[in-house]
Amino acid sequence: MRYRYFPGCTLKGQAKNMENTTMAAASALGIELVELEEWQCCGAVYPLYEDELISLLSPVRTLAAAEGEPLVSLCAACHHVLKRAQELMQRNEEARDKVTDYLEIEYKGEGRVLHFLEVLRDDLGFDKLAEMIKKPLEGKKVAAYYGCLLLRPSKVMQFDDPENPTIMEDFIKALGAEVVKSPYRTECCGAYLSVTEEGVARDTVAKILQSARNAGAEALITACPLCRYNLENCAADDGKEPVQVYYFSELLAEALGLQYKQLMAEAKERRRVASDSK
Amino acid sequence: MPRTGVFLCHCGSNIAGTVNIDQTIEASRNFPGVVHVDEYRYLCSEMGQDIIKKAIEDNNLDRVVVGTCSPRMHENTFRKAAAEAGLNPYLLEVANIREHCSWVHKDMEEGTPKAIALLRAAAAKVALNEALEAPKLEVEKRALVIGGGIAGIQAALDIAEAGYPVDIVEREPSIGGRMAQLEKTFPTLDCSACILTPKMVEAAQHPNINLITYAEVEEVNGFVGQFDVKIKQKARYVDPVKCTGCGICWEKCPAKAPSEFEMGLAKRKSIYVPFAQAVPMVPVIDKETCLYFRKGRCQICEKECPPQAIDYEQQDEIIERRYGAIVVATGFDQMDPSIYGEYGYGQHPDILTGLEFERLFNASGPTGGKVVRLSDGKPPKKVVFIQCVGSRDKARGMNYCSKICCMFTAKQAILLKEKLPDAKSYVFYIDVRTAGKGYEEFQRRAAEEYDVAYLRGQVGKIFPEGDHLVVHGVDSLSGKVVDIKADMVVLSAASIARADAPELGRKIGINTDSYNFFNEAHPKLKPVETHTAGIFIAGACQTPKDIPDTVAQASAAAVKAVGLLSKEMLQGEACTAEVDEAECSGCLHCVAVCPYTAIDAKEIEERYGDGTLKRTVAEVNPALCQGCGSCSAICRSGSINQKGFSNEQILAEVDAICLQR
To answer: Which of A115, A146, A173 is the last residue of a domain?
Structure first.
């Protein structure tokens, strides 16, 4: 199974751990992720206006660079922008002509654009994944946190039912862990309000973490660097044992028996740095 | 040369506003065969018709063209006027210069030449028209009602009372329909069973009504006055003549299945009647769950039945019967709200639909009439009702308002407070819509006297937390997000058409709208008729409606059916197809395309040289032909002509439009 891989900026910095663990897991699973050469920004935020085409130049160049091969990303925000840019290129001929004329490339919206979780679900299959797990996370109570970017707008993202998604729960099950269903798993994490209105983000994060803890979760997985940032940095210390936040790929690597200690040490260090900076 | 008269209608300014009448008159004078032209402000009025009649007599006209609205509106009016003046009504043509012309063009520059072209075509066609006679058809004096809910029962009773025999075909083992499932009815809170069961019994005992329960319509052929219907009587495995309805069989039966009548909230036996007041009180055996049918042993019902009415050998039977009129009253279903992931329906026993919640109030329902949580059997303290689940939702549900939910929710909230005075109800709504006699007052009573809190807003999420269901929504009037710790949640799921309504529609020859509800012939003026003569609709199979509207519509449909059955003879279609046997090659493509099975093959003998030759040709049965024109269009040799629309007439129209531009 060969895929083109688009990392995006965060995966080389703040979310380095998501890339490391995914790469290790992918090779253990026989999934080849070939990083695009000279890749650039995904566009960061999908434009709110359909005629704001300038923001689409970068993602469309990325899409075309995959040369029709399936394009995989890990960061929920990157995947969101790429998937939506592709859908616009397929649907709106006028926008497509303008963008591709400007870029002087040929692109008609071809190729699959996938999040790595979709590769695991649709191409590898969670049943197959479960068979390949070496160290099942038995007894570990894990809740999924989806956020918004992977799910909505659901008709474009085609990721899962936006109100009642199951992909991450099925993933957790495949790792051998115990699934905890947390009611706030699709609520907003506060997004960029953690920068401008931190109080709002603190309230939303508190709800998400409390509801996960009340449901009995020890750990929470996410596929979004921003969600993780907020969940860790906007969490209030109420003296109780905090719910640990992981990238989905960290638990995947752990369940596959890969460099477990090293990965965990890195994660711990990162959390220490984060809490020092608060 | 014909003597044709052309008459133009202004239709107030409907036509005259976009068509220059004076210019059109001048142009019409020059059409071949036209000897008289006149105009009037409203040609369909009595004065207007008199102008036509007088002109026919004074000018000795033998052809008439009227330039008016669509022939669907007034063709019959003008044909009648022509007939009164002694002219064969089929020698009159309508040029539709309103719907096809003045209403779709902006100004006289576009409208006038178009009107002239349409009139020229009509004048060219009418010159070739022939006098036609509509055949007379017999009427079978018996009606069929499909569906035995309150709509079907009411329609059947009214038809029967008028003196005509009527059969009710009901799919379920008992008549009664949705109304039988209800505990109370709004806005008077009378007990549903108390007002319905007398009607069910009356229908069963009426000498003119024949109940065919546990049966479905298989096939409908024929036409108004003479519908030939095949009805499949499903095997009950119980002899209805011997059965006394004593109930021993279903008491002793060891196998169980979810009860359809209880919306799956309770079990019934494999041999069962759907509910205690079932009519007829004759059980059926559900083959899927019956131990004898599944595993070949048990037969307890057979051993225990005192009159020995059990008959495992019974087979499905086809009943064939002719009817003069059909009333379709097949009712509605409730949408499955599980597509709304945020409400969690189906994932928690205390999240119910309105119809499921209704059953909890009923003394013979799944909880014996106790309103309790199905999870732990405790009475609820807080119940949240959510409106418009699937209704008024363009994105994921139906665009329409289901009409009954605001009222049944107010009813259930009142009933809840009366049963459990400590319970508190909350209603999330988009708008409260309670138009109807006594309805608004009823809903206000719920809000003001029964402590029901109405919250204008929507719910984003329902999730279990401990013993409760947290309803996370917004009260848009205060602008606040609210979390209600509820004990039960009731979803007002949309009322939707029966899933198999389009299939039934195809069988009987009536069409459905984009939601699969049956279409009426005219939304205002023909609310119970369909586009197929002799077939009428009543109740929620047309669109969601409450009991008063359903009963009113059922009586209306019955009157229409009775009006039809009371006629000695019906006038048939005059514009039927006819085959020129000399030209017909016998390919029989026409047989395949005829929607009315009006064409058959026939053998004819022809002289050929010295001997004779047998060959096949097509033959049209004029009694069945509805004049649709399909055969004439597909005929390769042009040997089928439709009277009134012959190939020559159509080509004359085309020439008149194309050649003289």
So the answer is: A115
Q: How far is B341 from chain A (nearest CA, A)?
A: 5
How far A272 CA sits from the closest chain B CA (Å)?
Answer: 33
Contacts of B340 in chain A (CB under 8 A): 163
Mean pLDDT for the stretch of residues A66-79? 96
Claim to verify: residue A152 and residue A239 sit in the same structural domain = yes
According to DSSP, the residues that pair with B55 across neighbouring strands are none
pLDDT band at A50 (very low <50, low <70, confident <90, very high): confident
pTM, rounded to two decimals: 0.81
Largest CA distance in chain A: 58
User: CB distance B461–A161 less than 8 Å?
Assistant: no
Each residue's pLDDT tens digit, B473-509: 999 999 999 999 999 999 999 999 999 999 999 999 8
* CA gap A141, A148 in Å, rounded: 23
Q: Chain A partners of B470 at a C-beta cutoff of 8 Å?
A: 183
Q: How many domains does chain B have?
A: 4
Domain end position, chosen among A55, A86, A115: A115
User: For B602, what's the count of Cα atoms within 13 Å in the CB-facing half-sphere?
Assistant: 14
Regarding whether A102 and A20 lie in a shared domain, the answer is yes
A125 lies in some domain: no
| One domain, residues A138 and A217 | yes
Query: Residue B341 and residue A214: Cβ atoms within 8 Å?
Result: no
d(CA B284, CA B174): 10
Report the chain A residue with the minimal C-alpha distance to residue B463.
Answer: A183
Q: Which domain holds residue B80?
A: 4-126
CB contact under 8 A, B465 and A161: no
Of A165, A183, A214, nearest to B461 by CB-CB distance is A183
Smallest Cβ–Cβ distance between A161 and the set B341, B470, B472 belongs to B341
CATH number at residue A223: 3.40.50.11810
Residues B283 and B298 in one domain: yes
Q: Which residues of A touch B (CB under 8 A)?
A: 161-165, 183, 187, 211, 214
Residues with Cβ within 8 Å of residue B96, at least 6 apart in sequence: B68, B69, B70, B71, B118
Total domains present in chain A: 2
Contact flag B342-A163 (C-beta cutoff 8 Å): yes
Would you call A183 and B340 a contact, using CB atoms and an 8 Å cutoff?
Answer: no
Confidence class of residue B621 from pLDDT cuts 50, 70 and 90? confident
Q: Would the pLDDT of A270 be above 80?
A: no
* DSSP-derived 3-state class of residue A164: coil
Token representation of residue A186: 């699709």
Q: DSSP letters of B414-433?
A: HHHHHH-TT-EEEEEES---
Tell me, yes or no, whether B9 and B83 share the same domain: yes
pLDDT at residue A37 greater than cutoff 90: yes
**Does A183 contact B465 at a Cβ distance shorter than 8 Å?**
yes
Same domain, B316 and B386: no
Q: Are residues B161 and B227 in the same domain?
A: yes
Q: What is the ipTM of this complex?
A: 0.77
* Omega prior to B280 cis, within 30 of 0: yes
Structure tokens at B351: 């999240």
Residue A13 belongs to what domain range? 2-115
DSSP bridge partners of B614: B605
Q: Where does the pLDDT of residue B596 fall: very low under 50, low under 70, confident under 90, or very high at 90 and above?
A: confident
